[in-house]
Design goal:
The complex is a heterotrimer.
Chain A: E1 2-7, H1 8-18, E2 23-26, H2 33-45, E3 49-52, H3 56-68, E4 73-77, H4 79-84, H5 86-94, E5 99-105, H6 121-125, E6 136-138, H7 143-160, E7 163-169, H8 170-174, E8 176-181, E9 207-208, H9 215-235, E10 239-242, E11 249-252, H10 255-270, E12 275-280, E13 282-284, H11 288-297, E14 300-305, H12 311-319, E15 325-329, H13 338-351
Parallel strand pairs in A: 2-3, 2-4, 4-5, 5-7, 6-7, 11-12, 11-14, 14-15
Antiparallel strand pairs in A: 1-8, 6-13, 10-12
Helix pairs in contact in A: 1-2, 1-7, 3-5, 10-13, 11-12
Chain B: E1 3-6, H1 16-20, E2 26-32, E3 38-42, H2 53-57, E4 63-67
Chain C: E1 2-4, H1 24-38, E2 44-48, H2 56-59, E3 63-66, H3 72-82, E4 87-93, H4 94-100, H5 102-110, E5 116-121, H6 151-154, H7 160-164, E6 170-177, H8 181-199, E7 204-210, H9 214-217, H10 221-235, E8 239-243, E9 246-247
Parallel strand pairs in C: 2-3, 2-4, 4-5, 5-7, 6-7
Antiparallel strand pairs in C: 6-8, 8-9
The chains are: A alpha/beta, B alpha+beta, C alpha/beta.
């Protein structure tokens, strides 16, 4: 066990290395580039490979190839770059290949800006590319959690043979916090009997493929994916609750915003408002059950995000119309301030369950 | 003597083999296979030299040649 | 009696779905024969591309990967960087390699990746029903150039061998044709040389195989061969464009 002071972006890289990842393919984009800088130095030290590709299209397909070869592999990018990777992500999902994609989100749409944003929530939690699929989406909110969640991301992607997306933003990337690293922990990478590593190295002959021209065969694949997704929904949903039991108003926030909201809950309680916080850690699968439970005990829910109301829709789904669901968001790379969230919280707590 | 045999169920009747045969002994049969193609065939088997060029040309690996001893 | 049979070990005994007179079957066989002769079947991984030849994934008796449109070189690189001792080939058509995938192709070549690309050029999109390809000849009628390809509207055809030969990192480039047995024998030699470049760690290798698509040319297979001789080969000259000795 050792303690370090570490930056979020470095924790992504170090977390990947601790998880046994030895291959990174990527393309520069702000505010993701520091992940690449870190791994460009660090991977060769541990006998790994860092390779800069000519585009995000190439990056995700290099990841595809390395995954076919059985490697624990990742890439990182930021919103516009992640958009470019969506075709590849769909192929990875269709071919049932494990890998990790980190998205350090920035303001958008279009080229937008490099400010922190949560504008890619829809894209990430609804598959992102074409076709009928999901990826697991993890949203850490501290440097320690980033470090630990990278391991979890690789483990989940292996267990379910699917891409896992880790979502953060420039604030999470730049933030420095003390972390504890347990270097003793050994990594177990599960065997990959399906990998295309040459016929001599496994039984029979392997084919990695997402083309199923016979409709019945495609439906069979879709059903297999569906069952996998149902299992993940049942087993892997992660959510942190804070002061939720007696809360009249439940805030719902993830990532950077959830840190601010936690402070807002404390402040509100000081002022006599019983506030609580639901922090989804997996954005897909989304913790609908926790939302649903809160919708029974609280008077209203307030989704706070750095977008115009994306996770808000999932909160509404979870609330099932039992209580009003409100949204407060800052856009364009702006971060909501604690005092403004508190103001909004007061407003909705007054309106409470009486409607919008 | 050499002998040419055709895996008739795989022949698509493209006729590429007919252009490859130096002796011009491959002809298209009037009969058709299950896929509905006129199949390639050799009528004058004794003229076959066993050169195997038809085997090289066939895109569907339909043809097998048994090359006899010279003379 | 000496038996001359066609099917190499590295091809599975399943019928090809290709149209009558399509030369993908010939190209598949040559690649498989070379893999057999080099004794690398058990450590070869092939990448099939999008287009008619996507089904190559099903035909080769080696481990196969089906890549996204144009991305076969990136996928092959990904595998090779994890497993440098394996033999990698991509099998790509003209749309996949020279249109949507030309960026990946050039960068993979310039990195000198030790992989072999088999590029089948038949001047037309097959799978999607006969549209213009980057290699469609000027004046050639396709579904999307119904009045013939014009330079003003569609630009010029791309000569891939000429384009890539000067790029550093490229070890071997040859253009061959599959329209008669003599050229097919040469094509096989080229493919073998290309794989040897990879096995000897010299660099990226490319064999462009001219081929006919009778269905989408609207010609009989025999007419298509004639068309190749009269129209295609004069525009796409056969020969070695680069070898370790340099650009030819």
């Amino acid at each position: 066990m050792r303690r370090f002071l570490m930056k979020g972006n470095d924790a992504i890289g170090e977390g990947a290395i601790l998880a046994g990842c030895r291959h990174f393919f990527g393309y520069p984009i702000t505010p993701q580039s520091e992940v690449a800088h870190y791994l460009a130095k660090r991977l060769p030290e541990v006998g790994g490979l860092f390779m800069q590709a000519e585009s995000e299209l190439a990056s995700i397909n290099l990841v595809f190839g390395a995954a076919c070869a059985g490697a624990r592999v990742m890439t990182a990018s930021s919103s516009p770059g992640v958009s470019l990777m969506q075709e590849g992500l769909s192929f990875l999902a269709g071919s049932e290949l494990p890998c990790v994609l980190v998205n350090i989100m920035r303001g958008g749409p279009g080229l937008g800006n490099i400010g922190p944003s949560q504008g890619d929530y829809f894209q990430a939690t609804r598959g992102g590319g074409h076709g009928d699929y999901y990826t697991i989406v993890l949203a850490p909110n501290s440097v320690q959690e980033i470090l630990d969640i990278m391991k979890k991301a690789f483990d989940l992607s292996d267990m379910y043979r699917m891409p896992v997306v880790v979502m953060a933003d420039g604030i999470m990337g730049q933030m420095m916090e003390p972390v504890v690293i347990d270097e003793e922990k050994s990594v177990e990478i599960p065997p990959r009997p399906w990998a295309t590593i040459g016929r001599d190295y496994h039984e029979d002959r392997n084919e990695i493929n997402s083309l199923f021209v016979v409709l019945e065969e495609m439906e069979e694949v879709n059903l297999r994916l569906l069952h996998k997704y149902e299992e993940i929904r049942a087993k892997e949903t992660l959510c942190e609750e804070y002061m939720l039991n007696d809360a009249e108003v439940a805030l719902v926030a993830f990532g950077t915003v959830s840190r601010i909201c936690r402070a807002v809950v404390d402040k509100a309680r000081e002022q006599g408002i019983r506030a609580g916080l639901i922090r989804p850690i997996t954005l897909w699968p989304f913790p609908y059950d926790v939302i649903s439970r809160a919708a029974k005990s609280a008077q209203c829910l307030l989704a706070v995000e750095m977008n115009m109301g994306q996770m808000f829709e999932d909160v509404e789904i979870g609330a099932k119309g039992r209580v009003p669901v409100y949204h407060y968001g800052r856009l364009g790379g702006m971060v909501p301030l604690a005092k403004d969230i508190l103001e909004e919280l007061k407003k909705v707590s007054e309106r409470g369950g009486t409607g919008r | 003597m050499s002998k040419v045999t055709f895996r008739e169920d795989r022949c698509k009747g493209c006729q590429l083999c007919t252009t490859a045969c130096p002796k011009k002994i491959i002809v298209m049969a009037s009969s058709i296979n299950e896929m509905g193609y006129h199949i390639a065939s050799v009528t004058e088997q004794e003229k076959c030299t066993g050169c195997g060029l038809c085997v090289i040309m066939c895109p569907d690996m339909v043809i097998e040649v048994e090359r006899g001893q010279a003379g | 009696m000496k038996k001359i049979t066609a099917r190499p070990y590295s091809l599975r005994d399943v019928p090809f779905h290709y149209c009558p007179g399509c030369m993908h079957g010939i190209a598949h066989r040559l690649v498989a024969e070379v893999i057999d002769e080099l004794g690398v079947s058990g450590r070869t991984i092939g990448i099939s591309s999008v287009g008619c030849s996507v089904f190559a994934k099903h035909y080769f008796n080696v481990d196969m990967i089906q890549a996204a449109h144009g991305r076969a070189p990136a996928v092959a690189t990904g595998v090779k960087r994890v497993l440098p001792d394996r033999v990698l080939f991509t099998y790509q058509g003209d749309g996949d390699l020279a249109a949507i995938g030309i960026g990946d192709f050039i960068h993979t070549a310039s990195r000198g990746e030790k992989i072999t690309t088999i590029f089948v050029n038949n001047t037309v999109y097959g799978m999607t029903g006969g549209q213009m390809a980057p290699t469609t000849l000027i004046g050639q009628v396709t579904k999307t150039t119904p009045f013939g390809r014009s330079v003003e509207i569609n630009g010029n055809p791309i000569r891939v061998c000429e384009l890539i030969a000067p790029v550093e990192g490229v070890a071997y480039v040859e253009r061959v044709s599959l329209h008669n047995p003599k050229e097919i024998i040469k094509a096989k030699k080229a493919i073998k040389r290309a794989f040897e470049m990879q096995l000897n760690g010299i660099g990226f290798s490319l064999v462009e195989a001219l081929s006919a698509c009778p269905t989408n040319l609207g010609l009989s297979p025999l007419e298509a061969i004639k068309w190749m001789e009269e129209k295609m080969i004069p525009f796409y000259p056969l020969g070695v464009y680069k070898s370790p000795a340099g650009v030819v």
